[in-house]
Amino acid sequence: KYLKKYINCKGKIINLSDKKIMGIINITPDSFYVKGRYKNDIGLLKTIEKMLLNNVTFIDIGGYSTRPKADFVSEFQERKRVIPALKSIIKEFPSILISLDTFRSKIAEEGIENGASIINDVSGGNMDSKIFEIIGKYKVPYILNHMKGKQKNMHLNNKYENLIIDVIYDLQKKINILKKFHFNDIIVDPGIGF
Length: 194
Fold this sequence. Notes:
This protein is of the alpha/beta class. It has helices spanning 41-53, 75-92, 105-113, 131-138, 163-179; strands at 6-9, 12-15, 22-26, 58-62, 97-101, 118-121, 142-145, 186-189. The mean pLDDT is 86.
């Protein structure tokens, strides 16, 4: 009903009416960006330090590639990639605001418990509907994405009768579901890149 300009991240009120920058950290061996493939914590932490010095507000970390035709990554493998990295980042930069890029409720919950302050779900709840319960339980901001299909085939599901209306309808449906979980802050991502 009302467009909010503020979100609450770990007790910090962030004004989104001002420009904010999100630094992207892909902890995947098949990242789009070759220099974004981290072999150890030293390279990862140096990159994050550089981002913070350049006024990045949020760091988004993910261990499951969202590029079209990306290979399947098991929950075990995704967890092995992101949770230790998240812990290292929080240990080095305790006040950092981390957006955890995952569609899995168990990884979202463990990530929040280890310092993530936002959940960025590329599937918009399509791949694990329990993620809405986790978001409601912890009251963290949630980036609600629009996506048709799954990572492997989303590029084949890009046909719409009316693109704008179909995307808005999908997102509104999900926002109505999220309201049942007494949800606080939703950031909408229409998934234009897909």
